[in-house]
Amino acid sequence: MRHLLGISGGKDSAALAIYMKEKYPTLEVEYYTTDTGKELDETYLLIQNLENFLGKRVNSLKVTDSHEKAFDYFWKLNGSYLPSATARWCTKKLKLEPFERFVGSDKVVSYVGIRGDEDREGYISTKTNIQAIFPFRKNIWSEDVINKALANSNTERLLDFYLSSLTADKSQRFEDLLKQPLSLAFKQSQKLNLLLDTNVRDFNRIVFEFIKTANFPLSQEAIFPLIDNEDVLIRDDIFRILRESGVGVPAYYEKKSFEINGQKGEYARSRSGCFFCFYQQKIEWVWLYENNTAKFFEAMEYEKDGYSWQQDERLEDLINPVRIKQIKEEYIKKTSNRKTKSPYLIDNIEEEEEGVGCAACFV
Questions:
Q1: Are residues 132 and 114 in the same domain?
Q2: Which of 8, 10, 5, 44 is closest to 242 using CA atoms?
Q3: Do residue 152 and residue 135 come from a single domain?
Q4: Which of 82, 95, 158, 265 is 20 to 30 A distant from 58 in Cα terms?
């Protein structure tokens, strides 16, 4: 059994590596990354700092045999067709395929840094020898595990695991929830959340017992320390872990101030990965232009033959001073309108599906 954790260069995966070392030091975790050749310098610095903290190497996976930078090699192979939300060849070629070659046929538990304040599942491998675990969430199990475990056909099995367990103080409510079948009026998500709210550890224990009877990599393990994990870590926790460990927060996450027509705003990069990631918002492109102009113009060089990073606007048009002013004004208005609703909404605006392109590939 191999325990793997992918380092995307982002804050969440880095914090997870620190967390796993500190909380589960006996687990032999392998750390890896894939270099597209189009990362910001801060990404490489973060990986270096992590290696110093972990006391072990972060494996850089081989993406291609070419001497060209990985992205450029596949970009040319795809006829200079730029990746997009509907054609994410970069994710497949630069992240998923190198990872699956690295895994091979080994049984693997892959630790993923999706936080407790995020509402997304992330990438789940279709390979049956790879099982994802989410230590930062209340529910550490992946959707494929939950779908099988909570199916009505397995209700009696889970109930038997619970009633025959060594738990001294069993809960009647937990037992009743287990018995209640899924229906249109009682959906799986409701049952899952209610069980977790009642007793996280008991839920994890019965799911682990179920896994032992199913075709998941963890079925061959007698024990798994994370079943006793009740931590739920959110964005503030991630930054705290990075700062307190000494690894530090990548500079591109640190907000910088700007002012337009007397209005003040703050902007930063919300994701790791390629500096020209097509998932960036327009305000992030402005940030790149104003804080790393050379990289911005490098991104512009790819926009030719009718291809552009954004379907509705070319980068050369986006940096028109009038357009920059408009983007900043719209961003200030959007963030100020939502700021009062939740302390995390501004960050969620900035990191819509953070890592959906690259960080999610580290399964």
A1: yes
A2: 10
A3: no
A4: 82
